[in-house]
Each structure stands twice: as structure tokens, then as C-alpha cells.
Amino acid sequence: MKMVPKQSSRSKDFINLSILLTLAFFVGLYIIYTTVVISKDGVIFIKYAKQFDTDPVRTMVNEYQHPGYPWLILQAHKMTGFLHKDTSILSWIYCGQGVALVFRLLALAILYFVGKKLFGFRMCFWWILILVLLPKPAGYGSDVLSDWPHLCFLVAGLLLLFNGSVSNRWWMFGFVGLAGGIGYLIRPECLQLVALGSLWLGLQFFWSKRTISKGKVISALVLLLVSFIAIAGPYMKLKGSILPKKNFDLFAKSLQQSEFYTQSNQGISESVLAFQFMPTSVIKAFCKLFSNVGETLLWFFVPALLIGMYKWFNLRKWHEPEAFFVIGLIALNVPLVILLYCKYGYISDRHTLPLLILPVLYVPLGLQELANWLEERFPKKVKCFPESNHDVNFWFLVLFLVGISLCVPKLFRPIRINRQGYRAAATWLKANTDVAAIVAVPDKRISFYAEREGFVYKNGNIPSNAVYVVKISEGQKDETVLMESLDTVEYKYVSKEKSGVNVFIQKNLQDR
To answer: How far apart are CA 73 and CA 68, in angstroms?
Structure first.
């Protein structure tokens, strides 16, 4: 008799996950199929993957991106090579997008069980459904980007932290370290798993109401650190820094000492800014962070997020594992993105995704609270499914559907549709120029898709050895300037999109 509820729960989990992952899979395929051009970072990842196969050590030292995701792209390309021998750029692009989508699906499955642990299977179903349909997270999962591969290991480590802390299984912290180490090789943000685990174990060591003995705390901490260092340590040693990607002065030692270090490190600005912890910079950073969160959640879900978090934390004690790690995740990520803005002057929407990955859990809870408020004034119930035995608040469905209706138009708008001119220019260059031709481009993705050697120029400084020059303009004002040299234009693409980019290809007069 005791097995019936357990089997029923597993059956519901299987049905829920089948629905969610199938939807996420087809949404991801659609985004991949309609993507106009990949991200700029995607170009770096693919070039990294191609170089990784020939000289991995030198590539890891010279490139600022972490090696995990490029290695996954390389392995995917080798595996698909058994099915179809294709060395074109598109084959590499599809492999990169495919890897991102696979890890997005895995991360969503893990997040489902995190949500189930916190709220139960019904509420976590709505949470994952929202996460599947939010345009920006979905776009990152079908682009050549490392966000979802690293998030997969981050949420896997968080699930292990939840389980290990609640059940007092100290040995599970070893697996947390492994997840953090593997994730760190993809993106440095996974280092926070070690920080979160260490903070929890430190609390257990010094707190009088500990739930685990001091001996097991020390064993868990050693296991956490050793397992992490065993995976991530060699790369840190090779780069000479704990956080080499952004080269924070707090952690990094001189990379110039490295044998293979090159001054053209693409990840660090040519003029690295000093820390600017001025009040105005911090305020601007918080405003940008709030703006990114709002845009990611389409603003509609922001009130529900705040209400849900207030409601849930009001019923929990901060030292409970489920509350402790969510608070810790927010407390670690907010200073990191503020630090990023103060030093480098920007915060990408992608940087806020790890911060939101668990708080989004509270959106359905907040929607339920808003729905309950509406229910008191306009009572109405509706059956969620014919076979369901419980009613669902009508207003919850209304709010949910309104939010989803805001997601769908942006979700199905092709990624970077305003950059169609890049693909058109790349197609012309590939068909009308010699394979060895050097092209000066304002965006590296043009020469990348054309499979030509390209130099990115700025402020009109065009390399003299470039055979062709690609110029772009946005709007009529810029176009009139380029029309002065219309007699030398070899190819012209005029965008039909209002926010689109017009592209002109000319022969380099300096080359004559």
C-alpha cells in the first residue's frame, strides 16, 4: 500500500517532464532553425573548438573563455561526423547550438526536482513552463553560448547541496565539488557552489544547533574542496589565476608570466578600468541589474516574483537548507554583477540568469497569491484537466495566460532578425571572392559565415591588406554618407526591417 503514492508521484513526474521537455525541445529546434546569426561569443567558442583539437594547451592559455564548452562542441562535431562528413561552418554552428539545447533540457529536468522539493510537483510544473517560454533564457539555450551548459552543473550542484544538507549525507558534498569543478571549466560562476557549500558547513561547525557532527563537517569540507580542485585545479594552474576570464585584481596574478600569453586577450578591454566604487557607479549598477531582471521576466512576472519570495521566506527560517542556499545564491551573485559593472561598465542579461534561475521558482507562488486576491473579489473556479480531482483558481490561469501571451511573440521572433544583411553579405563574399581573400568587416560574424579571413576595423581604420571592405549602416542618415562612394559598391543589401542593418561591400581602395 505504501508503494502506490510513490508510484503515483513518479508517474506524475514522468508525465510532467515529458510535456515540459518535449515543448522545450521543439521550441529550441524552432529557434535554432530560424536563427539569423549566432552571438559574437559563439564565433569565439567555435574557433576555440577548432583550435582545441590541434593545440589544446596553447589554446587554453591564449583564449580567455573557459575550455569546457568549446570541448563539448568539438566532441559533438566529432560524433556527428560519423553520420555525415561536413566541415562547413554551419555544421559547427549546429553542433554548438545542439550542445546548448541538450544541456538546457538536462538543466530543466534537474530544476524540476529542485522545484518539487521546495513547492511540490504541481507548482514546479508551472514554474518550468514559464522558464521554457521566457524568450531570453530560451534564446540562450539555442544559441552558441555556454550559459545553459554551465547552469546544468550549477543546478545539479544546488540539488546535491539541498539533499546533502537536509539528509546530513556529508559524502554528497564530494559530488557538489565535482559538479562545481566541471561547471567551472565551462564558466567561472560555478565556483559559487564551493562558496555555498563552505558557508553551510561553516554554519554547521560554529552553530550550537548543528544537525551534523564537527567531524563530518570537516570531512565534508575536505571532500568538497579536494573534488573541486581535482577538476578545476589544473586549469587554474595553467592560467595562473582563480578567475582568469575577467582578470579581477582581487584574485589574478600576472598572466604576462605565462609562456603562451598574448596581449590580444579578447576577453579584457584594451583599457581595463580601475575599480570605481563611487556611489553613482553602484547606483547605476543596481539600476542596470533591475532593468535586466525586468526585461528577462518581461516585467509582467516581476511583481509575482517579489510577492512569491516574500510569501515563501516569511514562512521559512533563514538557516533551513532550502532558504539558506537560495539566499546565498542571491547574496553571491548580486555583488559579482555589481563588481562587474563597476570595473567593466556593463551587465549583460546573461550575467543575471544564474541570479534568477532559482528565484523564478517563486513566480507561480506569487501568481497564486495575486489570483487568491482576485478570487476573493470575483470568485470563480475551473478544472485544470478533466481527469483532475482538484480545482485550479480561475484567476491563476488568467494571469498565467496573460504572461505567456507576452512571451510568445518574442519567443518566436527569429534571433537577430535585424542582422539578415550579415548573412546576405557573407553569402556574396563566399560566392564571389577567393578563398584566401582578406576582408575588413565591422562585425566578425560576417567573415565567419563567409569562411574568409577577416579583420575587424573600428573608426574607419581599414587594414591596407584587405581586398574587400564591408560597411554597415542603420537608417537613412548613415546610408546617405555611404552613397557618396556608390560607384565603388560591389554589393548592397537594404534591410526591410525598420531596425535592420544595411550592408555595403566595396573593394578596398587602399589595396590598389
So the answer is: 9
Lowest-confidence region among 166-170, 236-240, 272-276, 340-344: 272-276
DSSP 8-state assignment for residue 190: G
Q: What's the mean per-residue pLDDT of the chain?
A: 84
Instruction: Specify if 169 maps to a domain.
Output: no
b/e for 325-340, b at 16 or more Cβ within 10 A? bbebbeebbeebbbbb
The size of the chain, in residues, is: 512
Of the ranges 247-261, 475-489, 492-506, which one carries the lowest mean pLDDT score? 247-261
Question: Rounded distance, CA 451 to CA 426, Å?
Answer: 8
Q: What is the dihedral of CA 284, 285, 287, 289, to 10 degrees?
A: 160
Helices (H), 240-361: 279-296, 302-314, 321-344, 349-356
Domain membership of residue 438 (yes or no) is yes
As a whole number of angstroms, the distance between CA 354 and CA 148 comes to 10
R_g of the chain, CA atoms, integer Å? 25
Rounded to the nearest 10 degrees, the angle between the axes of helix 89-119 and helix 68-81 is 120
Residue ending a domain, among 145, 170, 190, is: 145
DSSP letters for 454-493: EEE--TT---TT-SEEEEEE-SHHHHHHHGGGGGGEEEEE
Residue 225 lies in a domain: no
Domain that holds residue 464: 418-511
CA geometry: angle 99, 105, 107, nearest 5 deg: 100
Phi first, then psi: give them for residue 60, nearest 5 degrees.
Answer: -65, -35
Continuous H helices in 35-171: 40-52, 56-62, 68-81, 89-119, 121-133, 135-140, 147-167
Q: Which residue has the higher pLDDT, 274 or 5?
A: 5
Residue 99: alpha-carbon gap to chain centroid: 13
Residue 157: inside a domain: no
Cell numbers at 271, concatenated: 583599457
Given 104, 128, 145, the domain boundary residue is 145
Element (H, E) at 172: helix 172-184
Q: State yes or no: pLDDT of 318 exceeds 90.
A: no
Q: Which residues pair with 189 in a beta bridge?
A: none
3-class secondary-structure state, position 345 = coil
Banded pLDDT at 390 (limits 50, 70, 90): very low
Lowest mean pLDDT among 126-130, 257-261, 291-295, 413-417: 257-261
Report residue 237's pLDDT band, with 50, 70 and 90 as the boundaries.
very high
What is the grid cell recorded at 286? 543596481
Non-local (6+) Cβ contacts of 271 within 8 A are none
Residue 270 has pLDDT above 50, yes or no: no
Which of 480, 482, 501, 342 lies closest to 417 in space, CA to CA?
Answer: 501
pLDDT in tens, 119-173: 777 778 888 999 999 999 999 999 999 999 999 999 999 999 999 988 888 899 9
Domain count, the chain: 2
What type of residue sits at position 168? N
